[in-house]
Amino acid sequence: AIIFHNSTRGERGNNMQIKAKCRYTVDVLQALVSFTLFKRATPKKGMILWTALCTVVLVFDIIEIIAFDLPFFTYSGLVFTVVFLCYIYFFYFAVPKIRYKIMSVPEVLEIEYAFYDDRIEIFTAKAGKIYIKEIAYSELTKVAETSKYWFLYFEGKRTYLVDKSTLEHGKVDDVRLRLGVFVGNKYYLCEY
C-alpha cells in the first residue's frame, strides 16, 4: 500500500487539501463499465431493460420469419439483435475482468489523490518509486459520481477513479462542489 506523501508542490497556500485513494479491483472497473454503458441508470435496471427490449425484438423477428416465410436477408434483424445483446453482456461482465488482468501489476493497483483548490495531485508507486502527477481542474472534461466512486475524466481520454470512502481531511460535499465548479453540467450524479 502507498502511504500519503507530503508533496512540496502541495504547499502553495491552498486551503483545501483533501486526500483520497482508490485500489483498483474488478468491482471498481465494473462500476466504470456500468457508467460507460448506462450513464446514470442503475446497472441492474439497464441490463434488465436491454435484455427485455432485445427479447421482444427477437420474439417479433422469429414470429415474423415463421408467419411470413420471409427470405434469408430478413434474418439480419435477428442476427443484429443477438450480436448486440452478446456485446452488452460481454462488455458488462467480461471487459472489467480483462482490464483488471491487463492492469494486474500489484504496485500500480492503488493510486492516491490530493485535492487542492486548483488542481489534483496523483501519487502512483511503481517499481519502488513514487510518481506525482499534477493535473489542473481545468483539464477535467466530465465527472461521474456513484454512491461509492468518482470517475474523473480528463483531456486526452485519461480517467481516474476515486473511492469516496477513503476521504481524509474533508467531506464528499467539499470535493463534489470543487469538481462541479469546473465541469458544470458535465457532472453526472448516478443512481447507484
Description:
This protein is α+β, with helices and mostly antiparallel strands and 192 residues long. The chain is built from four helices and eight strands. It has helices spanning 26-38, 43-68, 76-103, 172-183; strands at 18-23, 110-115, 119-126, 129-136, 140-145, 149-154, 158-168, 187-189. Strand 6 and strand 7 (158-168) form a beta hairpin. The protein starts with 17 loop residues before the first strand and ends with a strand. Residues 1-14 have low confidence and may be disordered.
Q: Keyphrases for this structure?
A:
single chain; 192 residues; alpha+beta; 8-stranded mixed β-sheet; 4 helices; 41% helix; elongated; disordered N terminus
Low-confidence stretches: 1-14
From the alpha-carbon coordinates, what is the Rg to the nearest angstrom? 21 Å
Mean pLDDT: 83
The tally of beta strands, per DSSP, is 8
Order of helices and strands: EHHHEEEEEEHE
Proportion in β-strands? 25-35%
Taking the sheet with the most strands, its summary is: 8 strands, mixed
What is the count of helical runs?
Answer: 4
- Characterize the overall form: elongated
- The span between the termini is 28 Å
How much helix is in the residues? 40-55%
- How would you classify the helix and strand content by structural class? alpha+beta
Which strand order do you get reading across the main beta sheet? 4-3-2-1-7-6-5-8
Quick take:
This protein is α+β, with helices and mostly antiparallel strands and 192 residues long. Helices cover 41% and strands 28% of the residues. An 8-stranded mixed sheet has the order 4-3-2-1-7-6-5-8, with helices on both faces.
